[in-house]
Specification:
The protein is α/β, with parallel strands linked by helices. The chain is built from five helices and five strands; from the N terminus they run E-H-E-H-E-E-H-E-H-H. The chain has one domain: Rossmann fold, CATH 3.40.50.1450. The chain is globular, with a radius of gyration of 15 Å.
Length: 169
């Protein structure tokens, strides 16, 4: 099973950098069969990387939502507007399916952040703690490929999956 872990967000805007920080930690683990990518935002060009994987996990900061994080499946959603510079995961999945005839199984790891204003490359203390909890959760999921067994959020298994993109920055 080929897996892509893709963290996105702006590390220069405090907690918006949770996605790239998470991706950097996952990359240090050097898990076999897990490719890692990170960027400020998802773009239409990312669809080419998605065509070659079986599972993608997107990691992003959540402006609101459960603490410390939420892990949920997301589905392709055509018709979601996007610009030439940014695209949300459901629209990217739909574009991948349209261009290449398939889209990977997809998950969103939405890590709760708190401080998004101002310019600083450090995470708030609360966001850093949430990142640590998310990493503790996702490491065995990636290592053992137990995505379906882990979602929706293992921290709150009674919670129904929210609409894709809800609560993520």
């Amino acid at each position: 099973m080929r897996v892509l872990f893709h963290g996105f967000g702006n590390p220069g805007r405090r907690d918006d950098g949770l996605g790239p920080a998470c991706a950097a930690a996952v990359e240090r683990w050097a898990l076999p069969g897990v490719a890692v990518d990170a960027d400020y935002q998802l773009t239409v060009d990312d669809s080419a990387a998605l065509r070659d994987v079986d599972v993608v996990v997107f990691a992003d900061a959540a402006v609101r939502g459960p603490e410390p994080f939420e892990f949920r499946a997301i589905e392709p959603r055509p018709g979601v507007p996007f610009g030439s510079h940014g695209i949300e995961p459901p629209a990217l999945l739909a574009l991948t399916r349209e261009l290449f005839g398939r889209a990977p199984e997809a998950w969103l790891l939405a890590i709760r952040g708190y401080e998004f204003d101002g310019f600083d490359e450090t995470l708030s203390g609360r966001a850093a703690a949430n990142l640590a909890a998310a990493l503790e959760f996702i490491e065995p999921v990636l290592r053992n490929r137990t995505f379906r067994a882990a979602g929706p959020t293992a921290r709150d298994p009674e919670r129904a999956p929210a609409a894709a993109g809800e609560g993520a920055s």
